[in-house]
Predict the structure of Jasmonate O-methyltransferase.
Amino acid sequence: TTEQQRMKSSIEDAITGLLGTASTVPNSILIADLGCSYGSNALALVSTAVNAVLCNCMQHEQPLPEVCVLLNDLPGNDFNSVAKSIAEFKQSFESFPPIVINSGMVPGSFHARLFSRESLHLICSSTSLHWLSEAPEDLVKRRIPMYDCDDNLRRARSGLVLDAYSRQFRKDFTQFLTVRGKELVPGGRMVISLFGRCSDNPASMATHAWEILASSLNDMVSRGVLNKEKFESFYIPMYAPSDKELRMIIQDESSFLINNIEVHKPLSGIGEVVVTPKMIALAIRSAHEAIILEHFNCSAHIMDELVETLVGQLSSGGLNRQMQSFACLSLCSTM
Ligand SMILES: C[S@@+](CC[C@H](N)C(=O)[O-])C[C@H]1O[C@@H](n2cnc3c(N)ncnc32)[C@H](O)[C@@H]1O
């Protein structure tokens, strides 16, 4: 994906930082990708990292370390397909200087421990860390919907909803940093990118990454296509932080030093003209289909109607509201 391409130079810098120019390097390097998904992109980040290891070692005449790549996602991910991609990935390195590549798949949530203590050298993750571990507890407990069907109530509570989401993200991301800090070797690196938002102003239009989806679902509720009570208990477990928020959480948690945080528009650099509302609608569908079908207990044709509703909203100005940003973070674990 574009996001993965954009992370390339940060991953290369991380490998340079790890291996440097010394005549000795570690015997083995462990690299993990969190939220790898499946299909052609699943090994893109680890592939960049392995190439960077090869380049660094050849350039500085260092002995080649063995490399182990570990692919993580939730247990429901299509790991059979990942296994096939791993086989192709190993083959693609056969024509290089002989480098030993071992691999493993690690099903589980990145909100908890996944790897042995002080075992990893590099952790990568693209477009996954904006997923929360659960819906914001405060909202669920107090039965405050993420998106009230009543316009006035929704406006009145928008600050409260944003705040609850922000606190849930802080809790999850803090936990994430703490567990990853334990799993990395001292001085290990982490390069991650996630959905973010450009503005710190809670009143700004694009307050939530899921706003367009929520308002489309709301539209379907008002037309009687979806059940109102079900909608009022539906929380999209996703939050897009600002770079300022990320900095504060990382500093407060203190396992990592920030090398660099870059914020950019999601579609910049790939020719914005080629992106149509339909493409965005389909991407939103694929990211949220499973949780929507499960929560509303509805049939798959509802998803076609959702796509149409999304296209309608995106075409009538919603596309600009949907424009969030991405943040790419390059971090180094503290010794
Ligand atoms: C948009 S995909 C990104 C896929 C790939 N990294 C890329 O950049 O194309 C997000 C992935 O994060 C995974 N994910 C979400 N929450 C997760 C969690 N708590 N633990 C592990 N993976 C998670 C999803 O299953 C999904 O495969």
